[in-house]
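Hello, quick one for you while I still have it in my head. Could you read through the record and tell me how the tokens relate to the sequence? No rush at all, and the record is pasted right below.
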Amino acid sequence: MVIVVFLQLSFDPNLAVRITRMKEVDGHQPVRYCASMNEPTLKEFRTALAVADAGSFRAAAHRLDAAPSTLSHAVAGLEEKLGRRLFNRSTRSIAVTPEGAAILARIAPLIAEFDAALAAGGQAEGSVAGNLRINAPLSAASFLLSDILPAFHAQHPQIEIDLRHEERMVDIVAAGCDAGIRLGRTVPPDMVGVPFGTSLRFLPVASPAYLADRGTPEHPRDLLDHRCIRTRMPRGERYSWQFAKNDEQLEIDVPGFLTLDRMALMIDAAVDGMGIAYVMENAAKRQILDGRLVPLLSDWCPADERYLLYFPGRRHVPAPLRAFIDFVKATVNHD
């Protein structure tokens, strides 16, 4: 099936898209759409592409800040105008039909090129505008607020930033976010990731009072004789503490009566003498510097973690997110 698309460039949000099937292929009858009130619109195609990308009307509605029913009606209207079913629907799921996938695959790069042209025009005037929604845990959000966002805002004052703090792993598409920041090993494999910030390391810490009472571990296996503050991961599993030195690597399922799922609480509990916590060094930097916590087994704790700025692997990245990615690559130190 051969499809030729002409974009009638204007600033009308319901910009008309004329689709003409030029000849009969594989037994299909040629169909010609002429300019009329029943012509498919750019907005309808954008909606269909968002639904196909998100995998559901609800997730697409979060992304577009619209009601799911509005998107459903828009897609139904587009299908009626085209005379083709783009999606198969059930009460619980939605899937792109083979013919719908073929049509959207042809339309997507044309709309992306159109958007890129508009974005380039705005950038040429020094103004990228729009909303940027980022989901991040507290440690990453704090880093953003102190080291990244002030300079980014100075460079892109027209971009509004919605920073959402969440410790647990979330579906950023379903949550209506453009991007997330998480430790690299926890990022879903179907996401595109950009290294973010310097290398990080986790290490055990304890209060001076605890160490005076229970002694200082000299080897990771010594932790089995200590009271530890255990870690609950975002997906619910308990985390085994990891250590490496030379060619030796260890994972220790430490004992302890207390399990927490937030690093800030682990640091507070360790300061209060409740046991040894395994935390990100920079998250406990203030408590280490002022002597409330003592780092342990440092020679067993390499800096081998890194945050990733991640986002769905779409062909077209929104202009505010693209500006942020470029800013991170250009200014954030990756050691």
